[in-house]
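Appendix B. One record, verbatim.
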Amino acid sequence: MTDVWGDQRPTRRQLLIDLGGAAAFGLAMFAIHVSLGAGAAVATLLLAVGLGLRHVSWQAMSGFAVAGGVTQMLGSDIAYLANAAYAVFFFTLGSHRDTRVRRFGMAAAGVAVIGAAAYGATRGGVEMSGFGRGATAVGLGSTAALFVFGGWVAGYLRWQSRQTVQARIDAQLEAVERRRVTELYDIEQERRRIAADMHDVVAHSWAVVAAQSDGARYAFRDNPAGAERALEVIGETARTAITDLRTIVAQLRDPALQPSTPGFAQQAELEERMRSSGMALDIAERGQRDESPLLALTAHRLLGESLTNALKHGDLSAPVHVVVDWTDGYRLSVTNHISGHATGERSGHGLIGMAERTTVAGGTFSAGREGDLWLVRVHIPVSSS
């Protein structure tokens, strides 16, 4: 948090105000009290110096304030009007940001009141009767209490007011910081989503194009019709990829834009492209689909990436088994045989993107080798979709 009162150094303007005010106070009070005696005159000058230093050092201010009080008591010359400076001294102590200084001010106020009362009882009315000395003690003590405790309480209230302002500013800064962090998180999530979409589109499209181009090259002489079909699939795949990339680019340019996204409607096209690429697909689907846009997009991307990995790394001489179960949320299971040249250990943007998509949708994801098989398992509860 930012401490708006943290800089305790006085400004040049504040110093000039303090010094000018202290000089005016000292000259005026000295002219008034010099006739009372040397003690009152000296005390006036000490109090004036303390006023000039109150924003420079509270310790120095307190020292001159004590010196002014002791001078008056020892000389028996009370600078009554100049003692109003004590209200300013204790205001400074009461409003200080350091708790120890405020406590020192409160303790000093108590000592000052007791000292004033004791002076009034012992030396303030030497020629008076006991009743008169008591009245003098009460009068001096009350006056001292008015100045010192009144000044300290006013300073303390000012400190509390500052704390209220500080708390309000801290709350505003915290709210701004929360919004900033939330926005950064949203931007990061959007960046990851777009990166996953780009990977899925490019990886899937190029895998299909590579498989179809190899098939077309082998079938060019012996099976012209098969080669022509392979080229058609390449063209369809390229056009679909271009459309998907345009959608992603449109979202990059205008984050507020919500263009159409692939979902269940494109699943049949995905399956046909995979079969045309030489993949034997065994698909079983149970239950009633949840048509929410997030789940539809997530299911399409997960299935597409799973089949793309099977196309690139799997043994296409064996069928790829796909099970989609909607009876308990969304469950996807994709199983394919691993080709002889594949290590069976995969890690990369595809699997990372699948895991992130599943997590965003509130589900769980796992993928790994089990013997000669590669298994992908996904579960997304309906309530999280």
